[in-house]
Amino acid sequence: MARTGRQRGGRGLAAVLAVAVLAGACSGGEDVDVDGEGGGDGGEGGSAGGTLIAAISAEPDQFDPHKTQAYASFQVLENVYDTLVVPDAEGEFQPSLATEWTTSDDGLTWTFTLREGVTFHDGSEFDSADVVYSYNRIIDEQLANAFRFASVADVQAPDPQTVVITLSEPTPALLSNIGGFKGMSIIPEGAADEYDLATEAVGTGPFTFESSAAGGVTLAAYDDYWGDAPSIDGVEFQYISEPTAALTALRSGDVHWTDNVPPQDVESLADDDQVELGTTPSVDYWYMAMNQAKPPFDNRDFRRGVAFGIDRAAVTEAAKFGAATVNQTAIPEQSFWYHEYAPFEHDPAQATDLIESAGAATPVQMGLMVTDEYPETIQAAQVIQANLAEVGVEVNIEQEDFGTWLDRQSQGDYDAFMLGWLGNLDPFGFYHAQHVCEGTSNFHSYCNPEVDDLLGQAATETDRDARKALYDQAAELIADDVSYLYLYNPDVVQAWAPGLEGYEVRADKAINFESVRLPE
Amino acid sequence: MTGYVLRRLWQSAVVLLGVSVLVFAIMQLVPGDPIRLALGTRFDPDTYEALRARSGLDDSVPVQYVNWITSALTGDLGVSFRSGETVTSLIIERLPATLSLAGGAILVAILIAVPLGTLSALRPRSPVDWFATLSSQAGLSVPDFWLGIMFILIFAGTLGWLPSAGYTPLFEDPLGWAQHLLLPAVTAGVGSGSILTRFVRSSVLEAIGQDHVRTARAKGMRAGDVLRWHVLRNALVPFVTVGGVQLAYLLSGVVIVEYVFAYQGLGQLAFQAVQSRDYPVLQGAVLLFAVIFLVINLIVDLTYARLDPRISYRSSR
Fold first, then answer.
1. How far apart are CA A182 and CA A67, in angstroms?
2. Residue B173 contacts by C-beta under 8 Å, 6 or more apart in sequence?
3. Is A456 in the same domain as A323?
């Protein structure tokens, strides 16, 4: 099922919470061959044309790729915009609007050669000025993704087909920063003044943005797309939040595809011949963190005791009904950055000893902050509560709405919380800000100078294997210190109508319909 | 009459101002920060500060309020933090769906309540009465989300008669509009219908016991005419009052029903605004709901005078 022949556009991912870069994943999925002519594994030939109707489970907030942070928006934008490079299904970066790139010996200058003959959906030619404009818009207006350009000193366009990015320090994560998801899309020069990008979209991708209403969005195939034009005429996204409604619509043929598949339904749907189910391990991870600014959570032994006291398999089963893989580090084994390391097994006796040796009076009271925004945190918390009751920790589950949750997190007003980082590609994105002492996402006050040192070196190490070795060392320290108590990597689960061909479930949850063919 | 209406409108303006102050104040008290919610856990202090300043959230609360109310008076309700669209356009986009759903639901409620309530009042303690009492009790007790999901499973799933989700604009596709409307309207209408059934029953019972009804019967008026002219007409006043409140409630968005059927109306808009602390949208939506209640109450009060000639609103001093 090697996908060869041409570069594929539009990939990426978007994350409600997190982010970032290189890596891999995805081999165990029940994926469908994408580029095969009339492809598919033994299904009847798909028909050309027609409009694909996709039910997505949340409503996009807006369509300005540089401003939104909502996954639902990126599900749509994935099909409309392009970035200079895109991650393939394994998380490796491939050409998109840039056909090739070179890095100077000092790692500070990256030169991108742009694809020729690309036009935007408004008919204008794509060239280097558009890239400079797009990136400077994000940097100058300090938009949501400006931090991805933190090490970028300058973006220049020496000629229409060349873009030169100058860095203040070597940044091996650069490709992931500019191509990891469609938040770094290239828009036409001046587009922010010319169009209302919150409600319109002018990209270079396989589909044009036709119209948007309260209930959904309509896209149409773009005939002048630089890649192979889509075989379907268009895509209609409908926002259906209630899973019963979405799955019923799928069974009755009202929609062709949905991501609204609750984990508890996966088992029964696998035997349902009205529905084709696709799953693959995602690069998301879910974890618990204890507030190390507060005793006894600042005590490493105490945290290690908690890590021994939690039955990760039971937590994972409760949270995801088996549609997830237990992991004691961040990234799943399908990724290049995976490092096999599992120092904790469920051992209540050792957990009790460690917790008692930490010196706090047992039972220790621990508030565990969870949110209804992510119901799996509530389900997981109940198992954690039961596990830890056996080892001298009384967990009080504190369920908050996400606004309050975030407030308390940033004020350090909690004992412990559970959440996930989504769409992790490059380790810079999922280690650095979370675990360096002054990290902007280090809300749990973890500080280990050795980890700072390793992560600092890894951030600028340009040799990939040397870089991985640094991250492996850091990952062990992070797990041993229980900076994050990693729990599991959930599966991506999507469902579509039998006979729909050319769709591929991706580890980074990017939704791309350019190669899809509808059932007869 | 005109004087009465003018006086009521003036009172309404004062109420609206009060509502707007109250909502603004409550939003400040609720924890949660719209910018942090928009950025998620990926927290970059520089971006955060820039976005906060741009959204005007750095101004003091009274200044924010004055800025908002000054624009609101010129018809500009501001721009959503979440979507970047104007609040007015977001509301207008969703108004047709909400009007359809509320209209459909109140129609369903009336179609249930008037016949059922009247029949059960005419035959107290009969099987019809038992049925009406039981079914209105059931209608009140069954949660919307459960009823909605059952309708989806039966009528969209097993029978495949109707679509399970979505909204089609009336002028684009009248048949699709009706098909998409039917299940949500029935789901939302059952609750209101159950409440109204009980009101119809009790007010018809009360009207039947009146002296003038006995007199009408005694003078040999036909039963149907007694019912129409002497009973139902008198029973209408309390019915209109409760029905008005139900309609206003349905118009302010039926969040659960909208959610279950992916029927993007004002309820969903307001709900998302609360979740994302989208102050301008929430402010606009609440203001609209307040207007809806005030207008419907005014209409209800004016209807009284038509239904019952004894009530009049002469502008007396």
1. 11
2. none
3. yes
* Separation in Å, CA of A363 to nearest CA in chain B: 31
Residues A303 and A413 in one domain: yes
As a whole number of angstroms, the distance between CA A232 and CA A515 comes to: 8
Query: Is A269 touching B (CB cutoff 8 A)?
Result: no
The phi, psi pair for A250, rounded to 5°, reads -70, -45
The ipTM assigned to this model is 0.85
Residue A104 lies in a domain: yes
Residue A492 Cα, gap to closest chain B Cα (Å): 21
- Are A19 and A429 in contact, with CB atoms under 8 Å apart? yes
CATH 1.10.3720.10-classified regions of chain B = 87-307
Q: Do the Cβ atoms of B113 and B107 come closer than 8 Å?
A: no
pLDDT tens-digit map of B26-84 = 888 888 888 888 887 777 888 888 888 888 888 888 898 898 889 888 889 888 988 88
Give me the CATH number covering residue A343: 3.10.105.10
The two tokens of residue B298 are 């005014």
Give the number of other CB atoms < 10 A from CB of residue B127: 9
Last residue of a domain, one of A194, A215, A244: A194
**Does B38 contact chain A (CB < 8 Å)?**
yes
Is residue A295 domain-shared with residue A159, that is, in the same domain?
no
CA dist., res. A185 & res. A199, Å (int): 16
Out of A69, A142, A199, closest to residue B50 by CB: A142
Indicate whether A172 pLDDT > 60: yes
- pLDDT score recorded for residue B317: 43
Task: Compute the distance between CA of residue B81 and CA of residue B68 in angstroms, rounded to an integer.
Answer: 14
Give the pLDDT confidence of A303-341 residue by residue, as tens digits: 999 999 999 999 999 999 989 999 999 999 889 999 999
Higher pLDDT, A32 or A421: A421
- Quick check: A215 and B262 CB within 8 A? yes
Do A336 and A189 share a structural domain? no
Q: What's residue B28's pLDDT?
A: 82
Nearest CA in chain B to A212: B93
Q: Is B111 on the interface with A (CB under 8 A)?
A: no
Residues A184 and A290 in one domain: no
**Residue A503 covered by a domain:** no
- Tell me which residue in A248, A402, A433 faces B156 most closely, judged by beta carbons: A248
CATH architecture, domain defined by B87-307: Orthogonal Bundle (1.10)
Q: Is residue A267 part of a domain?
A: no
- Cβ neighbours of A216 in B, within 8 Å: 166
Of B41, B51, B169, the CB nearest to A441: B41
A408–B167 CB contact, under 8 Å: no
- Residue A121: domain span: 85-194
Contact A431, A455 (CB under 8 A): yes
Residues in A 145-174 with any Cβ partner in B closer than 8 A: 146-147
Confidence of residue B233 (pLDDT cuts 50, 70, 90): confident
Pick the last residue of a domain from A159, A194, A229. A194
Asked if A24 contacts A91 with a C-beta cutoff of 8 angstroms, the reply is yes
pLDDT confidence tier of residue B314, bands split at 50, 70 and 90: low
d(CA B34, CA A413): 19
d(CA A186, CA A85): 11
CA distance A154 to chain B (A): 19
Q: How far is B38 from chain A (nearest CA, A)?
A: 7
Per the structure, the count of domains in chain A is 2
Nearest CB to A245 within list B45, B93, B262: B262
Q: Of the given ranges (A122-126, A250-254, A304-308, A485-489), which has the lowest mean pLDDT? A: A250-254
Q: Between A and B, how many residue pairs show a Cβ–Cβ distance under 8 A? A: 161
Residues of A in contact with B262 (CB under 8 A): 55, 215, 238-242, 245
A207 belongs to a structural domain = no
